[in-house]
Amino acid sequence: MSALPNAITDLISALNRLPGVGPRSAERIALHLVQTDSTAVKQLADAILLARERIQFCATCGALTEESPCPICADSRRDGSLLCLVERAVDILSIERSGTFRGKFHVLGGKISPLDGIEPEDLRIAELEKRLTQEPVKEVIIALSTDVEGDATSAYLAKRLARRGLKISRIAYGLPAGSGLEYADELTLSRALEGRREMNQ
Amino acid sequence: MHLAHLRLRDFRNYPRLDVDFAPGFHLLLGDNAQGKTNILEAIYLMATLRSFRGVGGAQMIRHGQKGYFAGGKVVGQGEHEIKMYWSARERNLSLDGRPVKKLTDYLGTLRTVVFCTEDLQLVKGTGRVRRRFLDLLLSQTRPGYLPLLQRYMQAVRSRNALLRQRAPDPALLDSFSEQLIKLGNELIQARRELIPKLSPLARLAYRRISHDAEELRMEYQPTVKSDFTVELAQSRAREQSYRLTLVGPHRDDLLLLLNEKSAAQFGSEGQKRTLAIALKMAQAEYLTGIHGSAPVLLIDDVMGELDAKRRAGFLPLLERTRETSGQVFMTATEANWPRELGRELQRWEVNAGTLQHARVSVSGGRP
What we know:
The structure holds 2 protein chains of 2 kinds. By secondary structure, chain A is α/β, with parallel strands linked by helices. Chain A has 2 domains: 6-54, Helicase, Ruva Protein, domain 3 (Orthogonal Bundle); 64-198, 3-Layer(aba) Sandwich (Dna Topoisomerase Vi A Subunit, Chain: A, domain 2). Chain A is 43% helix and 13% strand. Chain A has helices at residues 6-16, 23-34, 38-54, 71-74, 89-98, 125-134, 148-161, 186-194, and strands at 56-57, 64-65, 79-86, 103-107, 139-143, 167-170. In chain A, the strands form 2 sheets. In chain A, strands 4-3-5-6 form a 4-stranded parallel beta sheet. A two-stranded antiparallel sheet of chain A has the order 1-2. Chain B folds into 2 domains: 1-111 and 296-367, Rossmann fold; 118-294, RecF/RecN/SMC, N-terminal domain (Glutathione S-transferase Yfyf (Class Pi), Chain A, domain 2). Chain B contains 13 helices and 15 strands. A 6-stranded antiparallel beta sheet of chain B has the order 2-1-4-5-6-7, with helices on one face. Chain B has a 6-stranded mixed beta sheet with strand order 8-12-13-3-14-15, with helices on both faces. In chain B, helix 6 (170-209) crosses helix 10 (269-291). The longest helix of chain B is centred in the middle third of the chain and has 40 residues, at 170-209. The radius of gyration of chain B is 22 Å and the shape is globular. Chain A binds chain B through residues 112-115, 119-120, 147-149, 151-153, 155-156, 159-160, 185-187, 190, and chain B through 104, 143-144, 147-148, 151, 154-155, 157-159, 161-162, 165, 169, 171-172, 174-176, 178-179, 183.
């Protein structure tokens, strides 16, 4: 069956390592690329190389950026007293898209997971503590996932970061906006009930 | 609730099977090793995604084939179509033509209770068997129990991984303990509420099928006696030597007492067997009570082990199943099938991976 030239099978196996690309898609993309005009392919290759060379992690917050510090860290109009703690750099994009948060970010780089051998030292907690001493942060908002590891990491951080004059909060979990109760699963609903708020008259 | 159609491909000794089942009582007759239990196994598999024989998927594939297919139509509140395919490389499960993404959305489509010789482990086996019995019943009746249990077990595994480290960070251990306690307390609460409802059902069932006058009592035996937080802290020294989380719902047990004495220790073989069946009957009755319709009963050979008088204890449950247009599947050999049960039963002859309808009404003609 291996009638394909080696160059193509190498390309297929390289593509296959990308997230979301299975063997079938890898083969289709590879066969498409080798039959495409070579300038277009070169543009793609250059774009990949250039992006990889330019993009780095922000030394302060850990976001993906072309320059360090990143535009968010460098933006003096953003509220430096609010610091939102997220798991991965891409989570910043989700929160930014919501357009409601005007503070700064800190990327943790994961969550504590003894089963995967991820310990506090593997995360950017020391960097966070350093920032707390250097920046005028008044509130840390923890925006980690709500699975067991996310919950335990949040509890751990709440204790470890505790210091005078610093508020530590966690984003609420509950119903998805715009949907009725009938679509929420039981666990979400019971957490939403636990996290209910008094309504001001 | 009943299974209206069953389709098998390369499942155990069935190369191809397409068969319609009406509600009511189905007797699968045949010699040994013809494939009677395989039918029950397939139905149970569709309900729970597990084999009651405790084997993995590979063992259910017909010899020499790549994968099996099991599917069917369930009629309960509405009609549902189940399709599952299993091979070493590929697993597919779909409900009404849509792939199943979350287990909790699927389980409950078909509810079954199986009676088989392995049930004896409920009495003789370790606490794990009884915990699984309780967990299965709670998952089938209490919304949110299954995801809660999954989260709790994840917390246990994470905490154990921490305890196995040379010097676990105490602050980190505390954070996972907090999760363990919060989720664990909800599990304990759910189990604590179940037992008083289940125990009288089991006691009645036992009384019906036993000749003797012993009283059955079930007692929930949690490892946490009153305060999880305190007791977890107290177990810290032992945890350090075992490197395991030693208290919590994952170590709970269910005590089975006959006249206030442990059935596992002091019961006779016959009593243990009766007790195992009584537990399953209680499970079926409880499910019927909660859902308003009987689960599909799968009875594998156990009736043959009982004498006619004990078998008679089954009749009320079977009667109830018929009233709520439920369904019973029972395997037997020609020699040992309980003839007194036959009123409107449908006989099937099972022969080397084929199923043939032999619609004979046994005791005195059809109405």
